[in-house]
Design goal:
This protein is mainly α. The chain has one domain. Helices cover 74% and strands 0% of the residues.
């Protein structure tokens, strides 16, 4: 018998470390392209909304200047959340009685 110690975990953990490093590197390489794709996707959504007539925009609770304001947001901000907030603010202002009884739960 020998007193040799077998270290079976070392190659596996170093392989995991290499895979994790490659995954991180791939993420860094893809991130700029994902940012650019998101930018163009937001621009396409805003262009479709801008092509709607004023009556259709009013039906969904938006006005033309809301779309112009959304176009000025930075790339990290969510355009959909911004526009939804604008529409909700307008609904509350037009009919404050129906929203006065609502309670927010946190």
């Amino acid at each position: 018998m020998t007193n040799a110690v077998c270290d079976f975990d070392a190659p596996v953990s170093s392989a995991r470390g290499r895979a994790s490093a490659l995954y991180d590197l791939a993420g860094l390489a893809v991130r700029p392209f994902a940012t650019i794709a998101g930018f163009y996707r937001r621009r396409a959504v805003l262009a479709k909304l801008a092509s709607l007539d004023d009556h259709m925009l009013c039906d969904i609770g938006l006005q033309r200047f809301d779309i112009a304001d959304a176009a000025t947001l930075s790339s990290g901000e969510d355009v959909t959340r911004f526009l939804r907030g604008r529409a909700n603010e307008r609904r509350r202002a037009e009919n404050p009685i129906s929203y006065s009884g609502l309670r927010l739960r946190g």
